[in-house]
Amino acid sequence: MRVHVGVAAKRQDIPARVLDKVRTVIEIAFPVPPDVIRGREWHGRGISLFGWTNEPDDSRRPPLISEHDGRIIGVNGHLADPADVAKLPDDSVGGCFSAWIARDGELTASTAINRVCPVFYAETPELHIVGSRALLVHLIAQPVDRIDHDVLALQTMVRQGFFLSDETPYQGVSALRPSARLTVRGGVRTIAETPLPQAAPVPASARRRRAAIGELAEALVATVAPLRELGEPVNLALTGGRDTRVLAALLHAARVPFRATTNGLDPHPDVVIAREIAARLNVPHTVIAPPQTARRDAVLVEHPLSRAWETLRTCEGMTSAYESIVSYLPYSGRPTMSGQSGETLRAGSLNLLQTDLGDEALRRRIETTFRKDAKLFTPEADAHARELARPWLARADRLAALDHMYVWYKVGRWQAGARAGALRRGDPVRPFLDNRVVRAALALDQGWRLSEEVIYTLILRLAPELRDVAIEGKPWRFAASLPSRRRLPWRARPPAGHLAAEKTGGGWSWRTSPGPALTDVLREQVLGSLDALAPIVRPDEVRALFDGPVAAKPALAWHLYTVSTLLTGLYPGKRPEGLAEITVSRPDPAR
Prior knowledge:
This protein is of the alpha+beta class. 34% of the residues lie in helices and 17% in strands. It has a domain at 2-193: CATH 3.60.20.10. The longest helix has 21 residues, at 398-418. Pfam families: Asn_synthase.
């Protein structure tokens, strides 16, 4: 993992006390053991650039901080071609990254198209501060040793478990938007943005459709081609769904050695289908089962307070403890890959939730995304949510609006926070997050991508061996019947024998069925901190959520739990100790 922060003085030089503070607070904001942090600094006229990493040596390219033609450049994430570092901040560079560029009197920070490697910024009377960790930026900006939370901004964390805005949990700290450049020159800050690509109409002929999909395939292959030279196989987290199937096909077509790993119990569709995919492509496959009691009628889970502490530490209050964040392990250069954000190739997860593609139904999807569980929230919190939704509701093309909302928020805020856990362990390759891949995908018609013909054709182009492998959950969308008024001109013939895998009892999850014991722990924390939550939620509605023995809406209960622990000071602070694991029983052990 890499962390960068740039500091620019509005007048004269940066005070020494500020530089000393930067060096001190990095241990709080970097979620790894302090003894593995290595850093570099560059100081020029009115500008300082700091970089830190837990990488054990300087072998990874580009370097943490390097000089190119008089510019000092730091890169978070990875570049498809490390030599492209000299081109930054060019929007056409491949990879998954953000960049910091410094020289005397000037500081620039830039995001790629999905800002999944984030940039956060703040301003004080004497400084501009720009960094890759929101808490770090906030701590440097604070005149005293105190954290001030933006409580109203946290209303979206309670609703969705991530941010549907450019806000952060910290007062005065904002996230830079996708494809944006922040420049401080002569003490004055400016921000320029490049709009997301507008989708072209569906190609009129089969030949042109194949050519368009071919361009996307080429962009994907370019992201993994360098992995052929690593000397060890890529570890692919494989499931029974669409997105990791694309990656298996991609690695197969690019002739990159890989092995597959699946987490779950034997009867779960993910395990059943992943085994077949691995067999078809002749790659090793390992199944990792979750811990269970001896009778296999329950699972043991860590105490929510421990889970919340690690999530707050890693994701800075921008991801709910409902999510499973990858725990810390020493940094490793071994290549890993997962299907995170593969919905980009399918017009985004918000569109994928829709069965009715009518204008009014899509408008409601936009509004309910921002105003989910509206009756739970105070008038002030609801008014804030309405204002965040307003520019998206004003867009005439609803499919495009939901597609871009997915990139801005579900990837650019949720994934940006959640993937921090994995980045501590190494620098995983994420083809679906690559700057060029996202641009190629967004240039394709949203309805065409949403039909899943694009992704299905892409898989067959890369690995025809997977043609008849079942899919987890629902069948391919383009193969399902739709009313004639919504019949799409590019619809292909349904793939023969391509059926949904049957769900089994292996699909049970302790997070969505928390049981009484776990609910009691969540309830005690949330109801015990209602004063802290009162600016954004109605206490009576929160109590009603926990009325029964089991939380009525488990994800919402977890989101409330996360925000309540943030506001009551769980982190920064010492890791909780002595908390016993909690047993969560299956609702129907016989299955």
